[in-house]
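User: Some background: our group keeps a shared notebook of sequences we're curious about, and every so often someone picks one and asks for a predicted structure to add to the entry. Today it's my turn. The entry only has the sequence so far, pasted here. Could you supply the structure so I can complete it?
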Amino acid sequence: NSQAGPADVWTVGGTWRPVESLTLRGNRTRSVRAPSLTELFEPIVTVFDVARDPCDVRFIADEPSRAANCAAAGITQPFISSVVNASARGLSGGNPDLLNETADGWTIGGIFQPEFIPGLTVTADYINIEIADLIDPRSLEQNLEACYDADVYDPGSEVCQAFTRSASGQITSFLSGQTNADDAAYEFLDIRADYAFEVADLFNMLGSDSDRDLGLLLIGANAFHAIKRDIIVDGVTLDNTVGGFGDPKWSGTTDLTYRKDGLLAFWRVLWQDKALFSPSGNNTFADDNDTIIRDVGWRFMHNASISYDLSTLTDAYDKPVIIQLNVDNVFDRTPGRGLRRVFGNFGQAEILGRSFTIRARVLF
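Assistant: Of course. Here's the predicted structure to add to the notebook entry:
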């Protein structure tokens, strides 16, 4: 936009098929995102915030440079920071000086369709994205971490200037809101396999000759591997969410679909691997038995649906008349009474339990 200025964008890519069953692909891209009107001009308002102060005696050992940097800032130990439990008052809002985000990304992958297994398609892609001048709503805690987790304490840096302390070291004011963070780095691996075949062909493979139409079966599986998702400010990685519950290292779906005339049946398994409540492992939760929990195990949830197109039963009406039943969370998976209270860690389907939806769709 006119506020952030112009930018050049481009993409170059290509495909190569060394053999009939294999296609390799890749691209290199430069793209930008201009700051939105809200990010630029949101009014400055008074806000209240709490934070895990890195100089607090409870957290000062979490990173190797904290003790030296907090001492250089004149904070003596043992120090108890009031902002950990009592909110401080500050200002937050838009930033008219925001720059465009600039992203450099590249991908490489391939498609495999073996001739010896008709109907099978396997794809795999590696994605790497690095963003400069990332627009990020930086919080008080993020500024504190970037200031005191740096290799060398710099009181004149943007992050260290974003808050003030009293003579006793307590936070007295702060400025948060939209800024251009130094960097962001993302790495992902996306793998998918799809296999479609006639059910009659399966019986024929098993030695039972059948020339009847027994329907079509489709099997699909997707796996997503998060390798890196870092936000870096002043050379300090503030957020590495990979491995936390909301950003597991591995997640995916497995689908089974059956089609026969007007019948469509679908079953999906959603899964993710074992994950910590926070990637650092510092966040814990005490359940109803006061057992300290740092992580959750492998997570599986099943959804299903079945539908029928009634128009296939008669020639009197040639437009779809579809009745559909959906069942979310088929096996009524719930996180349990204690973990139910952990905000944000479990989806609504697990909180609500099993649910049913009936739909009817008629085209005129």
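Suggested note for the entry: The longest strand covers residues 171-198. The mean pLDDT is 88.
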